[in-house]
TrEMBL record:
<keyword id="KW-0472">Membrane</keyword>
<protein>
    <recommendedName>
        <fullName>Dolichyl-phosphate-mannose-protein mannosyltransferase</fullName>
    </recommendedName>
</protein>
<feature type="transmembrane region" description="Helical">
    <location>
        <begin position="49"/>
        <end position="69"/>
    </location>
</feature>
<feature type="transmembrane region" description="Helical">
    <location>
        <begin position="81"/>
        <end position="97"/>
    </location>
</feature>
<feature type="transmembrane region" description="Helical">
    <location>
        <begin position="274"/>
        <end position="295"/>
    </location>
</feature>
<keyword id="KW-0812">Transmembrane</keyword>
<feature type="transmembrane region" description="Helical">
    <location>
        <begin position="238"/>
        <end position="254"/>
    </location>
</feature>
<feature type="transmembrane region" description="Helical">
    <location>
        <begin position="203"/>
        <end position="226"/>
    </location>
</feature>
<feature type="transmembrane region" description="Helical">
    <location>
        <begin position="173"/>
        <end position="188"/>
    </location>
</feature>
<feature type="transmembrane region" description="Helical">
    <location>
        <begin position="136"/>
        <end position="166"/>
    </location>
</feature>
<keyword id="KW-1133">Transmembrane helix</keyword>
Amino acid sequence: MFGKDIYWYGVQAISLLKSGKLHSPDNSPVFHIVALLFRMFGVSDGTLFIFQTLTSIWLITSFFFARYLVFSGKDNPQQRFNFLPSILVFVLGFLYPKQSWALGFLALSFGFYSTTATNKKPSLALAKISFFSSSLFQWVVSGILFLVALWFHPMVALLGLGVFILYQIPEKFYLFIFCFGFFLPFLLPEDPSGRFYSEKENFPLVAAFALAGPCILWDWTFLVFGSSPPKFRRMRKALAFFGFLLLFPVFHFADIQYRILLSLILLNQIYIQWNILQILVWMVSSGLWIFTIFINPNQFRYSYEEMWIPGESMASVPNNGLLVAHHGFCEYYHFQFNKDCLSFEPDAKAISELPKDTEIYRAVYGIRYENLLSSKDENKKPIFSFIKPLGDYQLVREQDWKKYRLSLEKRNSKLLLVAKSWKNPYKERPDFIKRKHTNGL
């Protein structure tokens, strides 16, 4: 399976089928699509693959139709059918399905809006009826599609709103906005528990390069510096300037701006004019993405094949009430074995929900069994009262793991870099995620 979040969709859908509500509060209807597919084809990895494929088909269809609307006027009507789907359609469709469904609706919203903004009537069968060819109808449809995008994924809708605002602002004010964006990270609080804060550890374009390699730099360059037909110049400038503003680190997660960047690159596909140069750009982009996926697949998926045996053993421990593990293992473990798992440091809420007579266990990743076995406290006594070796993973009690991590801090051990990394979660759930569990938003 490709996709680092795909099993989470399965967890949410299974919860819908069993209890009628989501495992984690979320207003997006995308999980209901997965639940419907589970009803039709059964709960399995294969059904999740069908969902990812369906998501990619939706993106291709929506972007094709959006381009059809945009180029439906008398200028270059042949461009309506000139469409080569970017490989990002599949990258987004498989990695970020919820975002992809919302992005498809946003693209259609942009398509209907563009027909009003350029004073062109879409050459559809409905255009024969005066109301359906009117600007009012196109505005209404564009607004409805925007609200559907908001329903599927608020971040994508806010992205669309941001592009629309930049489109309305005269370009002479872009320098002022750029200066504000430059100083914004210094004005934000240094609070990792918030959704927005000054992220000085990761420069967004560098983080994007680390996630996807040179392919993302290639696409970013043509997003910011590429050209388009004159009638779409303002919209292209808005998309390009938004992509340029993503240089400034303002979001909590390092890859949020990366996801926004992918969406902007795809939205740009609506307005480009296909010619020989654009086909060459498309070929290089596709080649770079395929090469990156081939040589570094772990950037796009976890090693799920190596998770079955340790996951099955961990799930069989009788008093294992909650497992703490890295994000990818947690989702796979929860989906395959229907056992609770948390990819954060256990907080008061997680401890209060622990079933009676059970304990919290930790799936340690990246530290050898021998290192854990030989670890001792200040009194020369073994730190771990229970260790179950499972290949790349070691199962220990959470309370013992905290003592071990503290001992690494005192000794300033090199293993601390592994013990406090994504491989072994050490931070509590951020405040905005806690609010989501409390309020559903």
